[in-house]
Input
Amino acid sequence: MRRRRHRLQHGGRGRVTPLEGTRILDLCRYAPGPYATLICAALGANVVKVEAPPDGDPLRELDPVAFERLNAGKKSVLLDLKSDEGMTRFWALLRNADVLVESFRPGVMERLGIGFEHVNHEVPAMIYVSISGYGRSGSRHDRAGHDVNYMARAGALHGAPLPLPLQVADFAGGGLYAVISILAARMEGRGRHIDLSMERAVASMMMLADSRAGDVLSGRYPNYTIYRTACGQALSVGALEPKFWQNFCDVLERPDLVARKEDPGARDEIAAIFAGRTAAEWESRFRSTDACVERVVAPAEALESSRAYELPFGMPERDLGVAPELGQHNEEIL
Output
């Protein structure tokens, strides 16, 4: 059955396309690399997704909707890089490309004969991006893993009972860092190897975890946490500044709590207050007050209300269209 097609657009009004004319070869599967090259396509790049026979990117079958969103606006060629013919055709593509993005485990590209050193010798201007869980050096470089593992090793899941519904390591640590690195390398104007570790990238985002900010934002204080309501839904509270905490206490009709903004003991008292009304009732009460209180919505509701699967506003306005069929552009490109 042919999957439903989604045209991906985003709402920026700008006309600047910093990667216009940049030719990118995307050898990645699943999410981190494809998210990076999706953004690059939105920034004007011509992205060719190189897929292995017989089925290409496993995400095509595992999650067709995810594949569609992550690969809009790209072209697809089917190449067997383990065959002489496939490798000959791949080198022809390489010599006409500006950027290569791969996300294999360290060592795979070298065994195929297309590691950075070999490519750099043949195509010195190539920007070669390697996205992996733990980077190409260190004791964990050859370990398998996924987002939840990289987040765990970076300290981001400490105390969390379940994985986050957001793949921070994949999308931010892998995808966004790759885009930033590509843009920087293009500005620099020379070939280089960009070795991205998703674990290390998440760790860099944890730089405030052992500071006062990390403590204040930990959720143990009453002014920055999540409360369950009578209907089972939850509300987020981020009343860090005194004026917002004052407004928060005013809505709760508890002026005595104003002086207890950073008293962990007040959290249970406030939890009992929130448990007395539904989320809708609390939303109504806080609607006209600046107190940094918002309902915790399910991912499906957030996607529907904000069209979150589209790229953010502020980026160049560009209709990326649909994701390619497997090997759709073999004849055109090869």
About this structure: Residues 234-295 form one domain. Residues 41 and 47 are 6 Å apart (CA to CA).
